[in-house]
Amino acid sequence: MEGEESQQLGWALNSQTLLEFVPLVVTLALVIAVLFVANRVVRRNPKGEISVGRQAFMLALTAVCVLLVIFSLPITETSRGQLLSVIGLVVTGVIALSSTTFVANIMAGLMLRAVDSFSPGDFLHCQEYFGRVTERGLFHVEIQTQDRDLATVPNLFLVNNPVTVVHESGTIISADLSLGYDVSHVLVEELLKEAVVETGLSDSFVLVGDLNDFSVSYRVGGFSDDVSRLLTTKSNLRKNILHVMHANGIEIVSPNYMNQRVLTPGARTLPQRHREKQNAETAATPEDVIFDKADSAAEREALKSDLADARAALEDLLAEWKANPDRREAVDREKLLLERRIEFLTERLAVARKDD
After folding, report:
1. Which of 98, 219, 342, 347 has its CA 20 to 30 A from that of 80?
2. Spatial distance between the Cα atoms of 152 and 131, rounded to a whole number of angstroms
3. Which residues pair with 221 in a beta bridge?
4. DSSP 73
């Protein structure tokens, strides 16, 4: 009898133990089914990519499924709490170790916005990066380079390195060249300033840089208030330097090359004159092709600024009308014009955002 009772007790204990694992098995089955269905629903696009929102959804769903499995384990509340604490510590450590750069870029982005040293449309130069700003994000700044490519620069990189910004108020356009000692620096200065004037720059200047062994280095420049055509203006300045120098019989050539070439006496290295095939004022400039996205970003920023000014003017006008009710007729006319301008700017801003 005692053996039978012991056997029955053992079967009862085993049955009870198996019953304790039933919730775990059911939960695992449900979790696997839910994750399988969710993975089928969140399909990849034709390019093989998954959107950030869908990835975040799958990550959150997986975390919830793991918690459900833990709560269905046949263990005591104390053990379950300890297991959750260990998992929490592991997750916290992973986030802490992997989020150093993440948080640093966020803080750097907030710092750049607080300083506000540049805005979309400005030329920016930082280390090997040069181009026009197209977007300012919380983690990075997007720059459109001279090759029309888009470069993503982390905010932390811009904070840790010197940044040169060409603002819309204007900048100095300059060029460097070297000439032999047989050419008078007085004549060179006059011709270089003439080239600056032909380029359309103001406040021209010429500096003597270095007195080299075989040549004299010059730096010529002037002020330009049209920074949107920065590359074209630099190119035009160099073209005009060539035109002015060659037109006055001064050749720009390396002294080493002059010593090595074999020429007849009196021969000079001057190109033949060619007539320009199209007017420089009506011709398309490289900036129109290179910085198309930057131009759109600058246009949006200008529209936002004009829209904010118009709304502020409308608020001031309504405040004036409340203070002086006698000017209601004149205020109504100005109010109508401002409302039309606000509507026009709003439509243009919507079109600009849609085109982008």
Report:
1. 98
2. 11
3. 174, 205
4. S
